[in-house]
Design goal:
The chain has three helices and two strands; from the N terminus they run ααββα. It has 89 residues and is mainly alpha-helical. The mean pLDDT is 77.
């Protein structure tokens, strides 16, 4: 019964080891879960609805040809409103 409530591939892996006691099944499951958690990419978890949300990244802004021309004429960076210089980030 314990094996049936485990997540990911843990139930299958624990079953393959054929633990002869509940204590051994617990230990195997914990070790496998630790391994899975160590190899997962870090994400933001929304605990209210249980979903996993990717970290938000700044969205690129599309400039119109007119906006590009204005920035070019002023010598501004296309991504921000500061003067573009060599090595600007």
């Amino acid at each position: 019964m314990f094996i049936g409530i485990l997540k990911d591939n843990i139930p299958h892996d624990v079953h393959l080891w054929e633990p002869d006691s509940l204590e051994k099944a617990f230990r195997l499951a914990r070790k496998m879960e630790s391994k899975i958690m160590a190899t997962r990419k870090h994400t933001t978890h929304n605990y209210k609805d249980g979903s996993i949300v990717a970290p938000s990244l700044p969205q690129p802004i599309r400039l119109t040809p007119q906006q590009l021309e204005e920035k070019r004429a002023k010598g501004f960076c296309y991504s921000c409103d500061r003067k573009y210089t060599k090595g600007h980030k």
